[in-house]
Amino acid sequence: MAGGIREQHGDELSENHEINVTPFIDVMLVLLIIFMVAAPLATVDVNVDLPASTAKPAERPEEPLYLTVKEDLSLNIGNDAVQREQLAATLDRVTEGKKDTRVFLRADKAVDYGQFMEVMNLLRDSGYLKIALVGLETLPAPAAPAAMTPAGNAPAAAPAVPATGGNP
């Protein structure tokens, strides 16, 4: 900055018109650190165990068509084993060519997700687009501890949950 010659007029101090940016930089660095720490916490890391569900079961047709992927990656339609190459022809024979038939697809927990998707792709390529995934029906998780009433004296009653279960 350019300086000027000024005359001294006693104890009078001149005004300084410069902005001190040090506190601004400090605040920005603190915010940067906060966002750097908070960003990884915003991601979701979920362990997925899909085969169990507490959802109300959908209505089943009179004679459902089950396609099963076993642990050794073999396929069964109903109780009959079928080769992957023959899946489309066997489905056409069983459904009498009705491509809108809902296929209930179930797989062992040990089946790799990629292998499961290959079977779904086989179904799609065969023209069967109505695919229902089958899982075990389990009881709902136990309710959380009873909530306190607004007065804070006694716990409120938890709603009753009917027990359902069974295999599809």
Spell out the blueprint of helices and strands.
Elements: H1 22-41, E1 52-53, E2 65-69, E3 75-77, E4 80-82, H2 87-95, E5 103-107, H3 113-125, E6 131-133, E7 136-137
Parallel strand pairs: 1-7, 2-5, 5-6
Antiparallel strand pairs: 2-3, 3-4
pLDDT average, as an integer?
74
Report the helical percentage: 25-40%
Which of globular, elongated, flat, extended, rod-shaped describes the shape?
rod-shaped
Proportion of strand residues: 5-15%
- What is the number of helices? 3
Order of helices and strands: HEEEEHEHEE
* Radius of gyration from the alpha-carbon trace, in angstroms: 34 Å
Q: Largest sheet, order of strands side by side?
A: 4-3-2-5-6
User: Uncertain regions: pLDDT < 50 for 5+ in a row?
Assistant: 152-168
Describe the biggest sheet?
5 strands, mixed
Distance between the termini: 83 Å
Structural class: alpha/beta
Number of strands: 7
Description:
The structure is a single chain. This protein has 168 residues and is of the alpha/beta class. Residues 152-168 have low confidence and may be disordered. The chain has helices at residues 22-41, 87-95, 113-125, and strands spanning 52-53, 65-69, 75-77, 80-82, 103-107, 131-133, 136-137. 25% of the residues lie in helices and 14% in strands. The protein has three helices and seven strands; from the N terminus they run H-E-E-E-E-H-E-H-E-E. The strands form two sheets. It has a five-stranded mixed sheet, with helices on one face.
